[in-house]
């Protein structure tokens, strides 16, 4: 079990999780990336920003 | 089966009550009233109910005793006929504003005249289940909450409860069905179509129940009618008295609403539906709430959306009815809305 770095929700990893795997937070929908497994470290997956500024 | 009659059923809220309750497994609709349309088929006024019901409107004076009366009369009528309705049904669920404010002086402040039965105001449970669920269980008198008030209160209550608010300013964008089905010069198509109309920059009546529910006066409210039939989008600018991170705000909302069946926290990093949108909620009983912390000030922007006729009126009233009678509170209210709509 780990914590979403954006909203703090519990994030559960499967037993066969691997570094670099992408997953989504069930609460805030943020796409996350597994950075380390021992200890578990999860970060936001890089993504392209949309421009909503018009 | 619970025998239900609906008073004032020709309006939009009455139509949605019928749409829900005709499919409610524990309810039998006994009678529906309309003074103006007595004798007409319900489907004349609510064409979406064609081939679903053969009910005709009757006059209030023709009402028979029943178990539950839902009352959708214009404001000011219910309080003048309370005894008449109490003689007809064990349980009254009023969707007007007559019993929303528990303090008689506050009622007069917001509605501009004295209440005609002030000693009865405290008999009614205020109709937002997320705040008053325990009081609703077994309740015989329930007052539906205002639609703008519901969108605002649900957005802000967790923050006021957590004691993190310095002050807040709420701007509501409202759809035209909020004005009911009576025509006016302002609703004439050339006047209304395309309008973005500030119709109540200050002193909106719903502010009375908002302040009552939040237990605070440091809240300000404006309303604008826009080109939309159903729906409310409330944008609340909350000035925080603490330096909170977004993760802290998430925890406050998750703690308040994590188990609520009709509240969803909507705050996504990507996609076109990143924050609450009333369009997606049309016909549903959900209240979607999102937020964003301003990184350059102590402002937190909270966005909430509902269907004003559902979570803001009929849907929430049925949710309260379900709770008061011991049914699963989602009964009859599972419609998730349409996409695209």
Fold blueprint:
The complex is a heterodimer of chains A (54) and B (341).
Chain A: E1 2-3, E2 10-11, E3 22-24, E4 31-37, E5 40-44
Antiparallel strand pairs in A: 1-2, 3-4, 4-5
Chain B: E1 2-7, H1 12-21, E2 27-33, H2 42-45, E3 57-58, E4 66-71, H3 82-86, E5 89-94, H4 104-111, E6 125-126, H5 129-136, E7 141-143, H6 147-161, E8 165-174, H7 189-192, E9 197-200, H8 206-214, E10 219-225, E11 232-240, H9 246-257, E12 263-265, E13 287-293, E14 299-306, H10 314-325
Parallel strand pairs in B: 1-2, 1-4, 2-3, 4-5, 5-7, 6-7, 8-10, 12-13
Antiparallel strand pairs in B: 8-11, 9-10, 11-14, 13-14
Helix pairs in contact in B: 1-10, 6-8
Describe the structure in your own words.
Chain A is mainly β. Chain A contains no helices and five strands. Chain A has a single domain, classed as Rubrerythrin, domain 2 (Single Sheet). Chain A has strands spanning 2-3, 10-11, 22-24, 31-37, 40-44. In chain A, the strands form two sheets. Chain A has a three-stranded antiparallel β-sheet, with no helix packed on it. In chain A, strand 1 and strand 2 (10-11) form a beta hairpin. The radius of gyration of chain A is 12 Å and the shape is globular. Chain A starts with a strand and ends in a 10-residue tail after the last strand. The model of chain A has no long low-confidence stretch (mean pLDDT 87). Chain B has 341 residues and is an alpha/beta fold. Chain B has two domains: 2-145 and 312-325, NAD(P)-binding Rossmann-like Domain (Rossmann fold); 147-306, Dihydrodipicolinate Reductase, domain 2 (2-Layer Sandwich). In chain B, 26% of the residues lie in helices and 23% in strands. Chain B has helices at residues 12-21, 42-45, 82-86, 104-111, 129-136, 147-161, 189-192, 206-214, 246-257, 314-325, and strands at residues 2-7, 27-33, 57-58, 66-71, 89-94, 125-126, 141-143, 165-174, 197-200, 219-225, 232-240, 263-265, 287-293, 299-306. In chain B, helix 1 crosses helix 10 (314-325) and helix 6 (147-161) packs parallel to helix 8 (206-214). The radius of gyration of chain B is 20 Å and the shape is globular. Chains A and B meet through loops of A and helix 9 of B.
